[in-house]
Each structure stands twice: as structure tokens, then as C-alpha cells.
Amino acid sequence: MRDIVIATGNEGKINDFKHIFKDYNVIGIKSLLPDFDVEETGTTFEQNAALKAEHGSKLLNKIVISDDSGLEVDALNNAPGVYSARYSGEGATDASNLQLVLDNMKDKEDRRARFVCVIAVSIPGEATQTFRGEVEGELLYEPKGENGFGYDPIFYIANQGKTTAQMTGEEKAQISHRGKAIQKMLDSGII
């Protein structure tokens, strides 16, 4: 089984990758580089994903895959966007971020939102490539479901009839923004 290094320490993301990359041994970069940390200074998902993948690839001299992903809410001018993981400020948690979105949406009728994921692949000596996936949904008024992470408990997908936190890992992998971006990457033949 081939190894694939993912430039994240986020266990939720690593689990998502494991459900999608069934034929690979998925390795979170922190198991190889415990102090790995990249400041996400980009203003787009593409820029932040590339920063992480390129830094990890340079340190390991291996192919490294990274993603940058987040929630875009129409009524909040696409916030939290690239700031999704730190939306509620320093020391942000999934719970505090989710609550801030709910608070900011309490009087909004337009509940449309999307999850966006950009996968960056950095191969030593080659230009970094990025692949974007999105899934459309709407925000609920209160969390439902115990699976997933982040904003999954309030992200409802009508044609599935449930939130992404109510889906199994396999169900989510088939329709998710991350799954779509990874499929584009696999279809490209880059790895």
C-alpha cells in the first residue's frame, strides 16, 4: 500500500482522507514532523493549501498533499471562508466557531451555504497543482448529528435529507467538497 502524506494535524480531516483514499496508507504530517506548522497567510483556499503542501514537501522531500477548506455563507458575504477554523478568534474551537455562525445567522432568512475544499499537491521539483471541490447546502438553526467535525452539524444537504454530521464517513466521502476535490486530483493522474 502506497503512503500518502497529508499536511494537516486535524484528525477530522485525516479521517476524511482515510475514507476517500482507501487504497493508500494515509499519514498525517505531524506523525513525521511533530512541530509542523504553517501560518495561513493566503487570502484564498488555493493559496493556503499550496503554502502547507509546499512547506511539507520541502521539509520531507516527498509528495505532500494539503487542503484548505471552509464554509462560505451567502448571507455573511461568504464568511467565514478561509477563516473558518479560526472564525471565533484566538483559541477558536469547532464549538465556538459553529456557535458564532449560528449567532450571526439568527435573523437571516437566506440560509444558503457551501463547503469549499482546495487540494494542493506539491511534488519536489514540480509546480504545485490545486483542485477545487464544492458542495452546496443550507444552514440549520441548531446542530444535528454526532459525526464529522467543524460546521458539519449545521450543514444540511437537502437531497440527502440530513446534515453532514448525520452521515457516515463513507456517505460523506461520496458527496463532500473534499471528496470532489480529491476525485479531481485523482482524475488528473498527478499521483
Descriptive overview:
With 191 residues, the chain is of the alpha+beta class. Helix content is 30%, strand content 26%. It contains five helices and eight strands, in the order E-H-E-H-E-E-H-E-E-E-E-H-H. Strands 1, 2, 3, 4, 5, 6, 7 and 8 form an eight-stranded mixed β-sheet that branches. Helix 4 crosses helix 5 (177-188). The longest helix is centred in the first third of the chain and has 16 residues, at 45-60. It is globular and about 50 Å long.
Task: Explain briefly what this protein structure is.
The protein has five helices and eight strands. It has 191 residues and is of the alpha+beta class.
C-alpha Rg, in Å?
16 Å
Would you tell me the structural class of the helices and strands? alpha+beta
Helical residues, percent: 25-40%
Instruction: Estimate the strand proportion.
Output: 25-35%
Name its key features.
8-stranded mixed beta sheet; 5 helices; 8 strands; 191 residues; alpha+beta
Which secondary structure elements does this structure contain, and how are they paired or packed?
Layout: E1 2-6, H1 11-20, E2 24-28, H2 45-60, E3 64-73, E4 79-80, H3 94-105, E5 112-122, E6 129-139, E7 155-157, E8 162-163, H4 169-175, H5 177-188
Parallel strand pairs: 1-2, 1-3
Antiparallel strand pairs: 3-4, 3-5, 5-6, 6-7, 7-8
Helix pairs in contact: 1-4, 4-5
